[in-house]
Amino acid sequence: MRRSLVWLVGCLCLAASLVSQAAEKPNIVVIMADDLGYGDVSCYGATAVKTPHIDQLAKEGLRFTSGYCSASTCTPTRYSFLTGNYAFRKQGTGIAPPNAPAIIQPETTTVAALLKQAGYRTAVIGKWHLGLGGPDGPDWNGDLKPGPREIGFDFCHLLPTTNDRVPQVYVQNHRVLNLDPQDPLWVGRKKPSPDHPTGITHRKTLKMDWSHGHNATIHNGISRIGFYTGGKAARFRDEDLADEWVKQSVQWIEQNKDEPFFLFFSSHDLHVPRIPHERFQGATSLGFRGDSIVQLDWCVGELLKTLDRLNLTDNTLVIFCSDNGPVLDDGYKDKAITLNGDHRPAGHFKGGKYSVYEGGTRTPFITRWKGRIEPGVSEKLVCTIDMAASLAALAGADLPPGSCVDSFDVSGALLGTAGAAGRDHLVQQDNGRRGNYGLRVGDWKLARHDAKQARNVELRLVNTPTSRLQLFNLKDDPGEQRNVIKDHPDIAKRLTDQLAAIIKAGRSRP
Q: Does 38 map to a domain?
């Protein structure tokens, strides 16, 4: 009798443990905005634009005041988010050109592959900008391999590059969607023919003028970076991008609602060219940039409504973040500067996109898991590069040796667990070509500008001369206005040596 009782108690404990483990294995939705600054949403202080759905996430979850991306441009942040490795460790992770080959190779461990091994269905929908195809680049008229499906994603529906770069087509799984074989797609770096219309030769026909650099092939009245011809049946309208991402995401969630799933919703809002759908145009006083924030907020709302409708909310971890900080003039004359008024896209931080100052990488960062995360505000230091280790820990997946070398398990901090720690340091980088870095350790921030130039780009691309090393106390000076390196040479040396050691070591996670 006693043995039977012990056996029964043991079975009950095991069952309870299994139930607990299952309950701790949530669906995961990562919503990554594009060029969204710390001060661009109302739950982080914006008043010129209202973001009720993002605010709802913050109200029902945990709003981080020290949430970061790892780089101040899109390709390196997305690379680091998926691989758990700092992008400066790999050549070719700067801003990817239109014909870039796949940057993440099939043998690389990714957050998607880890979750897939743990039994998750996986998808990426939206902007990719991490290259496609073999060493020679994409075969736009054939199979686009390797790509997301070779690194752990079951399904992908993509904007292959970024929308200011050609081509304006969707890629679904391994093919350009709706491509007519009789009208093949060509993408190149040189003008295909002397009479090919461009933003220079046909500037008066543009519905949005360019300010710098975006003056090659014209599509939908907007000139882009790079050249392409053909594929007319496959081309999309800029105004429809957000609707397409939502439609595909809702459909995929519906199809996979009965299994654990991981959705990477990779928004293009509010990257240039900012052409929100007509129903959002004029929604704010900030022009198309502000209107794109409202469109992004609508996307968040549609995803949350879908989770509610399918009774998935209580078992879904939603993470909201951005790939880098803000920029106003990033190549098009869309009145973002003239209509900005008193709006502070980066909040009270200095710099923005392309910069290693705080405005370049400190962004909105929110986690929500109803019934599991207690709503509130967290000062813990967390970063998008930590998603690989943290989400793997939640899913019960082990990191293979030598993988995700800069990703820390901060799942406790993401969930607001009492006593859980965030990161104790973070390396920040620009787009990888200029060799500028930031290192935050506690309240101290070292900025190392190897190029001896800083980009102060919250408004526009401007290079300003700067000393190679700067030291800031973020507690006393969050806006990085006072370089105190002469007052604290010992701290400056310690951080300088630590940054050099992290770069040299090839990894930062023990």
A: yes
| 226-279 pLDDT per residue, tens | 999 999 999 999 999 999 999 999 999 999 999 999 999 999 999 999 999 999
Asked whether the whole model's pTM tops 0.85, one would answer yes
Place of tokens 């680091």: 80
Q: How far apart are CA 496 and CA 510, in angstroms?
A: 20
Alpha carbon dihedral 126, 127, 130, 132, in 10-degree steps, equals: 60
Q: CA 296 to CA 299: how far, in whole Å?
A: 5
The strand pairing partners of 263, in sequence order, are: 29, 123
Give strand ranges (E) for 205-302.
218-219, 222-223, 227-229, 261-266
| pLDDT tens by residue, 149-190 | 999 999 999 999 999 999 999 999 999 999 999 999 999 999
Token pair in block for residue 395: 């899913």
Residue 466 has which token pair? 């700067």
Which residue range is the domain that position 484 belongs to? 426-505
**Residue at a domain's end among 415, 442, 473:** 415
Residue type, 478: P
Helices within 63-127 (DSSP H only): 74-83, 111-117
Residues 101 and 158 in one domain: yes
Answer whether residue 8 is part of any domain. Answer: no
Last residue of a domain, one of 415, 436, 452: 415
